[in-house]
Amino acid sequence: MTQVNKQIDRRILWAVGILLLFAVFFGVRALTREKLTVRTAKATRTEFISTVSTNGRVAPETNYQFSSPTNTTVKSVEVQPGAVVPAGKMLIELDDLPARARVATAESGLKSAEASYEAALHSGTKEEREMISAELSKAKLDRDQAKRDVEALKKLQATGAASPSEVAAAQDHLSASESALHSAETRSKDRYSKAEIERAKAAVDEARTNLTAALRVLEQTSYHAPIAGTVYSVDTSKTQFAEEGKILLQMADLKHVQVHAYFDEPEIGRLAIGQPILIHWDARPTRDWHGHILRVPSTIIAYGTRNVGEVLISIDDSDGSLLPETNVTVKVTLSSEQNTLTIPREALRSENGKAYVFLITGDELKRTPVTTGTINLAQVSILTGLKDGDEVATGAINGQPLQEGVPVKVIR
Questions:
Q1: Secondary structure of residue 69 in the 3-state scheme
Q2: What span, in angstroms and rounded, lies between the C-alpha atoms of 327 and 321?
Q3: Of 192, 209, 353, 375, whose CB neighbour count within 10 A is largest?
């Protein structure tokens, strides 16, 4: 029994010794382990601004575009790109000979159509009406003479001086005369049907339209500035051939320009009329412009590989320095929250859809669940889990992953 007790005591001593060795090993390891150097940030209360950025293109509020109305040549160009011109200034002049020929042809066509319509309304031309009138007069004379002949023969027949066949022949001649008169009267009144008159009137309307179009073409062979503004595009030169429809010159008042911005589909629901906009143009990196949303998207369109909504932006401080067709970056302020607890976005982590941070507790990391609010590109608003002044790790200097309980050295 004594020997058994001695063996048990010996085993206990060995176990205690092993435990002590482990304790000394891990204690020394903990004391000598190199601490993980981390960057940190403090949870602070500040104004939290949520923004979204995208691309856009500048366009005039009202653009004046001048194109060639017909195939012709350029007679003169009176302005250069970038010219600031007063209203009424001659801009460009085209050879008007083809346009004048077109006007002459249209005027001739109108006169011919009007003459045909006049003839249809009055049952023929003046010459035709005079001929019909003469025929009508002759037919009346023939009819009246035939009547007299019938009456005379009937009287003679009563005295036996004329035969029944002579009376019948005279009666036939009277019927023929009356038929000829009726035909002449019909031709004098209803020579043209209603449909023919309507066709003639339609021909007049078409000829007038052609003349109006020809006169408009002639008018557009010389262009003057409709407003005081800036000529920002000239795409022709003197003696150059200009085919019909070719854009020759564009101008606008560059103090009144807008931006057409293209926001990705998931962001459209957060946009609203009146939201403030910041506009940046890389060509002038030291200058920004300000505006607001004038119109939100009403549909989704394909823009390259993106599905976007087109947003119209009014520029509040336009001074003429933003040029049409330039590409700009726009940033819209979606919301602004005062006295909001925030941390940098890189301090936030997520696992299985649950957000957490690594809180600095003493010289160790503590995994701490948080509830987030609005998130922008740089910051996250914290609703629960942290308090003002709490320090959280944003990342390790050497790129190693952060873990709970790891001793850290803080770089502030």
A1: coil
A2: 13
A3: 192
pLDDT digits (tens, 9 = 90+) for 357-379: 999 998 899 999 999 988 887 88
> Are 245 and 387 part of one and the same domain?
no
- Angle formed by the axes of helices 126-159 and 164-189, to 10°? 160
C-alpha dihedral, 96 to 101 to 102 to 105, nearest 10°: 160
Q: Characterise 362 by phi-psi region: left (phi > 0), alpha (psi -120 to 50), beta (else).
A: left
Distance of CA 21 to the CA centre of its chain: 79
> Are residues 145 and 294 part of one domain?
no
Please give the C-alpha separations between residue 84 and each of 62, 221, 233, in angstroms, as whole numbers: 16, 22, 12
Locate 97 and state its tokens.
Answer: 């000979």
Question: In Å, what is the CA distance from 203 to each residue of 41, 113, 118, 122, 191?
Answer: 84, 6, 12, 17, 19
Token code pair at residue 149: 């002949």
How many other CB atoms sit within 10 Å of the CB of residue 335? Answer: 13
What's the structural domain count of the chain? 4
* 64 vs 179, more confident: 64
Which position has the token pair 């435990």?
19
- 396 compared with 131, residue with greater pLDDT: 396
DSSP state of 352: T
Q: For residues 368 and 43, is the Cβ–Cβ distance under 8 A?
A: no
Residue 6 confidence (pLDDT) above 60: no
Please check whether residues 90 and 115 belong to one and the same domain: no
**Residue 291 C-alpha from the chain's centroid:** 19
* pLDDT for 38 beyond 60: yes
- The model carries a pTM of 0.58
Beta bridge partners of 267: none
Instruction: Provide the residue count of the chain.
Output: 412
